[in-house]
Amino acid sequence: MSFSDTRLRVFYAVAKQLSFTRAAEELYLTQPAVTFQIRQLEEHFNTRLFDRHHNRISLTDAGQVVYSYAERILELYRETEKAINEMTGVTRGIIKVGASTTIGEYMLPLILSGYHDRFPGVQIRLTVHNTRLVIRKLEDATIDVGMVEGPVKNKNITLTPCSEDELVVILPPKHPLTKLAEIPVQSLKDYPFVSREEGSGTRAVISEILTKAGMPYERLNVVLELGSTESVKGSVEGGMGFSIVSRASLRKESELNTLVVRRIKDLPMKRMIQFVHQKQKFRSKAVEEFINYAKEKCAQFSLN
């Protein structure tokens, strides 16, 4: 926890989550400790900051005022600490990293392990979501930096390329399309398709590429929508249909020959893995070093 006022940080977390339990989890505190800090702050202001309604809480008018100031004050605390660390060259503290599912499952574990060896004074907190949720967390400053593979349209977000990734068709071994060396794009609509969920970066990229090739995503025969690449691969292995995933996610399946991999004829399916961060936010030395190190490692990934 930073040098900022503990009561203010606790209040801000509760106000943002509207839950004592979730705030306690976010701050790595016990729920009684969170309740105690809120009670102290309410005694300081001599007014209630939250209304309690059975199992729900909401901000009072006074709570809304404190929340708006707390957000600004805590941001100034963060900027002060980052600025001083930057001046003194200290690489330590906490980095909150958000990653989309494919990156979080198949790329980041190697990056984080090496980064920790190089900078043992930095604690990394990783959350894995689809691209849409990673961007949302970046927008509300829940994370410091993200790594995504989907398209990003927010003008306040800076994109820094990391590595190119290839998307390929995966099929169960007995699927009719395995007889083809490359699959015509129009053939995709004729077979059951296992899709990632709405908001997935992989799905957004696939949709964009197929639409440009004259095969809108809506024409695919979607039989399942799933929330992770692992569940997609498992469903394809089980014979539910075919899918399109990152080649980087197929190391195990390639070794075991449990899935057949094919490209789409005359349709390169490439996407860029990117770092994302807010344009106007000060980046600490630890975050800068993380991006530099991750770029270094990205260049070593052979995804094709």
Short description:
With 304 residues, the protein is α/β, with parallel strands linked by helices. It contains eleven helices and twelve strands.
Structure commentary:
The longest helix is centred in the first third of the chain and has 28 residues. The chain has eleven helices and twelve strands. By secondary structure, the chain is an alpha/beta fold. The protein is 43% helix and 24% strand. It starts with 5 loop residues before the first helix and ends in a 6-residue tail after the last helix. The protein folds into three domains: 83 residues, Arc Repressor Mutant, subunit A, CATH 1.10.10.10; 98 residues, 3-Layer(aba) Sandwich (D-Maltodextrin-Binding Protein, domain 2), CATH 3.40.190; 106 residues, D-Maltodextrin-Binding Protein, domain 2, CATH 3.40.190.10. The strands form three sheets. Strands 3, 4, 5, 6, 7, 10, 11 and 12 form an eight-stranded mixed sheet that branches. A two-stranded antiparallel ribbon has the order 1-2. Strands 8-9 form a two-stranded parallel ribbon.
